[in-house]
Write a structure and sequence with these properties.
Shape: globular
Number of strands: 14
Number of domains: 3
Protein name: ABC transporter substrate-binding protein
Largest sheet: 5 strands, mixed
CATH topology of the largest domain: D-Maltodextrin-Binding Protein, domain 2
Low-confidence stretches: 1-46
Strand content: 5-15%
Distance between the termini: 34 Å
InterPro entries: Bact_solute-bd_prot1, SBP
Strand order of the largest sheet: 3-2-4-11-5
Pfam family, one: SBP_bac_1
Keywords: Cell membrane, Lipoprotein, Membrane, Palmitate, Signal
Number of helices: 24
Length: about 550
Amino acid sequence: MGKYVNKKSFSVALSVVVASSVFVGCSTQETGKSSASPKASGAPTAAGTVYPISTQETLTSWEGIDTNLASFVPNLAESPFGKQLEKETGVKVKYTHPADGQSKEQFNLLIASNKLPDVIEYNWGGGGAAAYPGGPEKAIADKVILPLNALIDKQAPNLKKLLQQDKELDKMIKTDSGNYYAFPMIRPDNGLVFRGPMIRKDWLDELNLPVPQTIDDWYTVLKAFKEKKGASAPFTAQYSNELNIQDAFIGAFKTANRFYIDDQGKVKYGPIDPQFKDALTLLRKWYAEGLLDKDFALNTDSKSLDNKLMSDSAGATVGLLSGGMGRWMDTGKKKNPKFQLVAAPYPTLKQGERAFIGQRDFKYNPAASKAVSGDSKNAELAVKWLDYAYGEKGSLLFNFGVEGESYKMVNNVPTFTEKITKNEKFNLQQMVSQYTKPNGPFLGDARKSFNTFKEQDEAIKIWGETDAVKHVMPLFITPTIEESKELAKLNTAIGSYKEEMFVKFVMGKEPIEKFDEYVNRIKEMGIDKVIKINQDAFDRYNKR
C-alpha cells in the first residue's frame, strides 16, 4: 500500500482541525430536512451503467452511523436501507463505523494508519472546517484521496449532469485548482434554514405578550418568564465549544460570533468588532439579571437542555427544527397538551429592520461527503456505486427508503407509510433512519419532510427572513497548503482565548472595560493573518 502522508507532519497539522469550529459557521446538520433539488428526477439512471452492477468485488466504506439507526443495528449493512442499496446497486459493501462522539479522533487514526478503505465519508470540505489538515488539495497531494475529475466524467453521469446544470454547485465541490474531491450531500432550497430562536407560545398567551421581534421585546418577555412563570433559566441554549445561539441576539448588532462577510464582500472576524462589545454587554446584563441560564457553560450535551425545557425551567432557546422543536413539542405535549413552541424571528435592534445574519447553510453540505481513497483498487466501481444516489431511483431510496414498506407513491408523490409515521414503538426519525440515509452524499428530495407540527413549517419561513445569504461565509473555501500551515499555528490559541474571554465577559468575571485589551491581544496572536488567509481563499473561490 502506498504511503499517504508523513505522520509527523500530520499530527502537527491536526491543530487546524481542532480549532476549525470557532472560525467557520456552525455546520451542525439538521436531519429534519432533506438534501436536494425540488424533485429528484433531475438526473436519470446513468447511461452506460446498468444497475444492479455485475461484480464479485466488495467495497469498503468508513462512515458514521446515524445515532437513531445505531439503536437498532450495529452496522449499516444490516439495516433495511443497507440491504436494499446492495440489492439495487449489486455492490456488496463492508462498512466500518467510528464510535459515537469519536469520529474526529478515529478519523485521525485511520488516516495516520495508512490502511484506508475504498471510500471515506467525512468533512472533506476545505477551509477552516477541513477534517484533513490542509484541506482537500493537501489530501490529494498526499495521495490520501483521488482527484475525481476523470472518474466523474467517465463513470458518474448522474452527478456529472447535475454539475453541468448547476454551476454554483459545481464551484462548491472543487478546489481552487479545479479538482473535484468528493461526492457531495446536496440540499434543496427548502432545506437550507433549519435552526433559530424558539419560544413557549403557551406562556406568551398566558401573559398576553406577543412573539418578540426586537432585543427590547426579548428583554420584556424573558423578564416576565422569570418573574411570572418562575423560570430559573428563562433563556437557555446548548454550549458546544461556544454558546450555541448561532447569530441570534449577537446578529442584532450587525456582527457575528465567527467569521462573516460584510456588505462590501470583506471577511471580518466578528468577536473583535467594536459592536461585538455591545452584544457582550447585552448578554452580560441578561446573565446578571437571571434571564440567561446561569449554568449555560455547563450545558454541553442535549440532555441538560432537554431537562430545562421539559421541566419548565426555561421558556426559550435556539435550536434545530426537527431534532429540537419537533422533538420537544412531541415530548412536551404528552405532559402538557397546551405546550407549544413557535419560531421567533432573528431579533433586531429596531422594529421592522431585517436581520443582518442568521443560520443559513449552503446546498452543498461538506460535513457528509464521500471521497475515494488514493490507493483504492476499486475506484471505478466505487464511483459507479456512489453515482447511484444521484439518479432518480437511487435518490428515492436514499430519501424515502423501500417502496411499499417505508413509502408509497400518492399522486406521483413519494409519501411515508403509516409504518413510518404512526409507529407505536418508535418516532418518525427512528423509523426513517432504518430505511433511508438521513445525511450523506446523495441527491435529496425537497418533497421529504420530517415536520410533524405546523409550527415547524412556519419556522422555516420566519427564520429565513434574514440577510444571511449575503453574510454567511462559505464552509468550503480552500486555503493553500502553505496557508493551512499558517492557520494551524494560529487558530487554536486564538479560538481558545476568544471563548475563554467570551464566557468571562458574559458572567461578569472580567470587566467589559477590558474589551479593547482583549481585542489587542487577539491581534497580537495573529488574527489579521487569519483574516487575510480567509479573504484570499474567499476571493479565489469567487473566481472559480
